[in-house]
């Protein structure tokens, strides 16, 4: 990961969990999506480790509202040499998630807006987009700050309750890993 430029690191301490749960996917074609790309740290890790087969793809959704951060994402993507695998979608996730084909993704990583209502909407819309047997990953399950009154945990707990017959919980730590039945 030395060839990349990052100013934030909210992902490297999750890599071992990802590798343990999803590393085996790298042997085949993987169609992944992430909601919340920032500078591309999680995206570059996925490209380097999970999306290694030629046909594998990554869809990155972000507001990309800060041009400096977006330029860093773009530079990192070029440095990866794998830009041809990536579809970049700018704007709020809810505008894009409704327009994507259901059942097309093997893995969806939800790390965009941390407002509970947005997390719930991202989860519900992503559930339709992931294949049966595919994976949904929610980040920041216990995260809180003073700006929000509704947090990821509220949304993830509601999602886990409402979809209890439709998902298998693989991990419930800082990140929650689910498999769609
Ligand atoms: C925690 S950062 C993502 C970190 C990234 N996954 C990584 O590992 O470095 C959250 C990102 O979500 C984006 N975001 C916030 N609200 C969003 C929304 N409604 N739709 C899409 N992206 C959003 C922000 O612009 C920010 O880049």
CATH superfamily: Vaccinia Virus protein VP39
Q: What is the 3D shape?
A: globular
The overall pLDDT, averaged over residues, is: 97
Total helices: the number is 6
Query: What is the strand tally?
Result: 7
Q: For the CA atoms, what is the radius of gyration?
A: 15 Å
Describe the structure.
Helix content is 34%, strand content 23%. It has 181 residues and is of the alpha/beta class. It has a single domain (15-180), classed as Rossmann fold (3-Layer(aba) Sandwich), CATH 3.40.50. Strands 3-2-1-4-5-7-6 form a seven-stranded mixed β-sheet, sandwiched between helices. Strand 6 and strand 7 (176-180) form a beta hairpin. The mean pLDDT is 97. The site of S-adenosylmethionine has 20 residues, from helix 2 and strand 2.
Question: Secondary structure elements and their pairing?
Answer:
Layout (H helix, E strand, L loop, with lengths): L14 H8 L8 E5 L5 H9 L7 E6 L4 H14 L5 E5 L2 H5 L7 E6 L5 H14 E9 L13 H11 L4 E6 L3 E5 L1
Parallel strand pairs: 1-2, 1-4, 2-3, 4-5
Antiparallel strand pairs: 5-7, 6-7
Helix pairs in contact: 2-3, 5-6
The site of S-adenosylmethionine has 20 residues, from α2 and β2.
List keywords for this structure.
6 helices, 34% helix, globular, 181 residues, Rossmann fold, alpha/beta
